[in-house]
Amino acid sequence: MLNLVGEALVRHLAQDPAFVGIGPASAARLWERFGDELPRVLADGDAGVFSDVVGEERAAALVVAWRERQAHGDIVVWLGEAQFDIRLAGRILALWGVGAARRLRERPYDLMALAPWKTVDAAARRLGVAVDDPARLVAAVEGVLYDRFGDHHTWVGPEDLIDEVAARIDGDVDVAVRAVRLALAEGAVFEAFGGYQPAGAFMMEGYVAERLRAMAGAGPTGDLVARPVTDVEIDAWLRRNADGEGLVLDPEQRQAVRMGVQAPLGLLVGGGGVGKTTALKAVCDAAMTHGHVVHLIALAGRAAVRMSEATGYPASTIAAFLGRLESGEIALGPQVLVVIDEASMVDLPTFYRMLRRMPLGCRLLLVGDDAQLPPIGFGLVFHELVAAPFIPKVTLVRVHRQAAATGIPQVAAAIRAGTLPVMARTVAGADVGVAFLDGSARGQATLDDVVNAVATCGGWSDDMRILCPTKGGPVGTDAINECFHQYLTHGQDRMAGAGFAVGEPVMFLRNDYRLGLRNGSLGHVTGFASDILEAEFDGVRHALTGRDLDDTVLSYAVTVHKAQGSAFRRVVVPIAPTRLLDRSLIYTAVTRGREQVVLLGDRKAFGEAVKSEASAHRRLTGLGCAMASAAVPG
Fold first, then answer.
1. What is the pLDDT of residue 83?
2. Per UniProt, which keywords does this protein have (predicted)?
3. Could you tell me if residue 187 is left (phi over 0), alpha (psi between -120 and 50 degrees) or otherwise beta?
4. H helix runs in 358-434, sequence order
5. In this structure, are residues 593 and 408 in contact, taking their beta carbons and an 8 Å threshold?
6. In the sheet where 265-270 sits, what is the strand order?
7. 3-state class of 634 per DSSP?
C-alpha cells in the first residue's frame, strides 16, 4: 500500500523525464516490490534487482538516472515525509544544492523561503518538532516578517510583532516575547528605529543609507578624463544650447542640467507635463559634451523604450544593465553618469543591487514622480529619497503649453493634492481632455460601458489602452481582453490553441535578452502558422513558440502597474471598488494619457480613492530613518 513517501516517489519516477521508460504502472510496481527501501536500493546501484520488475534495459537506465539525480530524489523523499508538493524539489535543489534534503531534515523551517509559515509549521510538527522548540519560535518571528514583506513593509512596530507572533504560537504573549529575544540573539531580526526589521531589509536599508550619504557628501570628483565641470562651463553650454530657437529650458530645467552634470547624486522630480523628458535630454547632451558616458536605464522595458525615443540615446532595463556590468561588458567610473528613469518603480532589493555595482565617484541621477504607484516589490526608495534633505533635488512644476492644452496635467495635479478634479461628464469623440462617465449599472461600470467608451473615443487603435486596477473582476483586464477579442475578431481566422488573430495587441511578460523583449513589451500580431505566433514589438518582428508563446497575452487592457512607464494617446480607465484603488493608482493611470483620458464607473469609489492616503505613505520602512541616522561623511 502506498504511503505518503510512496506516493511522492511513484509520482517522481513516473513524471521526471530523466527516468526513461518508467511510467505510473512500472513506478507503482517498484514501490510494491521494495516499499520504504526503494530509495536505498536505488542508491545501491544494482540494476539486476530491478530487472524482473521493469526489464533489464530500463533497470540499467533507472539506476544511472537515480545516481545522476539522487539529490533530487532525496528531496522528493523528504517532501513525501513532510507531505509537501514534490514539485518544489527543483526549486529546493536550485536553492540549497545537493545537501538540501539533509539540511531540511535538520532545519525544516528553512523551507519558509518557499512556502508559508502555516504549511511549513504543520510539516515540522508532523516531523516531531516540539511546540516550544527554539527553532519553531524563531521561525514564527521570521514568518511574521516574511508576511510583512508580502505587504511591502520592511519594518514592524514592537506591539504588532508580539501580537502577530503570539497568534502563530497559540496566543501566548510571554512565549512570543521569548521568541523575539531568541530571534534577536540569532540575528534573524534586528532592533531598529523603535521597532524591528528582518536581517535582509536591515542590511540593505543600512547599506543604501550609508552609501547615499557618502555619495551626496563626496563633492565633485574627477580624473584626467572626467574633471569636475565648472559653473562657467555649464552656463556657457546653456547659453549655446538653451537660448536659441531649438531647446528652450525654464529655470528649473536649467538647474536640473547643472545638478545632473555636477552633482554626484541627484533627484529630478515632477509630474506629467512639466518637462522632465526635455530636462533629461538636456542633461544627457550636456554630460556627453563635457566628457561623461551616460547610461540610461529603467525598471520596465516600455519605460526604457520611451526614454530612448525621447532622448535619442540608447536605454536598457535595469536587469540588462546589471547583466552587462556583471559580465564585464561595461564598467563604471568617475566619468560615468547613470540615469534611472521612472525611479518610483524601483524596489529596495533592485536599488541595493545597483548601488553595490556602482563605485564611489560614479554619478547617479534618479528621475521620477513620487505621486505615482510605489514599487511592486518590498521597500520604498524614490519616495523616501525625495524627502531626504541631504540629497540634491530639482522639482519641476511648470506645466508646458502643449501638455496644458489637454487638461491632463491640471486633473493630475488635483488628484495628486487629494482634491476632486473638475472633469467633463460627456465625451464628444476622439478629442483632447479628461472626462468621467458614470457606470450604467447603478453607477458601476460594465463591459458594455467600456466598449462604448472606446467606440466614442474613435474606436480601438494601437495608441489607445484600457487601464485597470486589477486583472480580475467584471471590468478587470481578463474580462475586457476576452470581450474585445471576441468582439473585434469575430469572423476572423484565429490561431489554434492560443486564439490570437492578426492585428490584435499583445504584451510579452518576461525579460528575454535573446529576443530583445522585456517584461511589458507591447506589440501586435502580424501572423501565425501552426504553433508559431508572429508578432511585432517596437518595429521588430518575432516568431514566438513554446514558452515564448505562453508568455504572450492580449493587451487591449493592461493593469495600471503594467502600464507604469508607458504613455498612450488615449486611455480608458474603468473605476470599480477594490482594495488596490487609491490616489496613486488613479494618478498613475491618468498620467499615462497624452491627449485624452476617460474614466468611467463608480464616482463614489473614485472620490474616496482620490481623498485616501497614497499607498506609498502606508508602507512601513526603515530607509528614511536609516538615512537620517547615517553618519555624515567628513
1. 84
2. ATP-binding, Nucleotide-binding
3. left
4. 382-386, 401-404, 408-416
5. yes
6. 315-317, 293-298, 336-341, 363-368, 265-270, 393-396
7. coil
Residue type, 469: P
Instruction: Please report, in angstroms and rounded to a whole number, the separation of the first and last CA atoms in the chain.
Output: 73
Residues 6+ apart with CB under 8 A from 180: 141, 161, 162, 165, 189, 196
Rounded CA separation 179/141 (Å): 7
Amino acid type, 263: A
Yes or no: say if 318 and 342 are a contact pair by the CB < 8 Å rule: no
* Cell 487609491 belongs to residue: 582
What are the structural domains, with CATH classification, of the chain?
Answer: 1-124 (no CATH), 219-401 (3.40.50.300), 407-601 (3.40.50.300)
> What per-residue confidence (pLDDT) applies to 244?
56
| Position 530 pLDDT exceeds 90 | no
From the list 431, 410, 391, 379, the residue with the least C-alpha distance to 621 is 379
3-state secondary structure of 279: helix
pLDDT in tens, 464-489: 999 999 999 999 999 999 999 999 99
Is the Cβ–Cβ distance between 125 and 118 less than 8 Å? Answer: no
Q: pLDDT by residue (tens digit) across 113-126? A: 888 899 899 989 98
How does residue 381 score in pLDDT terms, banded at 50, 70 and 90? very high
**Which residues make Cβ contacts (< 8 Å) with residue 303, sequence separation at least 6?**
341, 342, 345, 564, 565, 566
- The pLDDT tens digits of the residues spanning 198-212 come to 999 999 999 999 999
Place of cell 523551507: 111
81 in Cβ contact with 36 (< 8 Å): no
Lowest mean pLDDT among 75-89, 447-461, 596-610: 75-89
Q: Is the pLDDT of residue 224 over 70?
A: no
* CA 407 – CA 409 distance, rounded (Å): 6
Cα gap 564→567, rounded to integer Å: 8
- Residue 225 has a pLDDT of 45
Nearest-5° angle of CA 121, CA 122, CA 124? 60
Per-residue exposure over 277-286, b if at least 16 CB sit within 10 Å of its own CB, e if not:
bbbbbbbbbb
Question: Are 213 and 390 within 8 A, CB to CB?
Answer: yes
d(CA 146, CA 272): 35
- State the Cα–Cα distance between residues 256 and 334, nearest whole angstrom: 19
Q: Which of 20, 69, 16 is nearest to 42 (CA)?
A: 69
**Burial annotation 390-409 (CB, 10 A radius, 16+ → b, else e):** ebbbbebeebbeebeebbbb
- What's the whole-model pTM score? 0.86
Q: Rounded CA gap, 212 and 191, in Å?
A: 22
Dihedral (Cα; 476, 477, 478, 481), 10-degree rounding: 130
Q: Which DSSP letter does residue 181 get? A: H
Q: Name 455's Cβ contacts closer than 8 Å, sequence gap at least 6.
A: none
CA distance 149 to 576: 27
DSSP assignments along 288-338, one per residue:
HHTT-EEEEEESSHHHHHHHHHHHSS-EEEHHHHHHHHHHTSS---TTEEE
User: What are 406's three cell numbers?
Assistant: 489637454
- Amino acid present at 380: L
pLDDT digits (tens, 9 = 90+) for 616-630: 889 999 999 999 987
Cell output for 578: 477594490
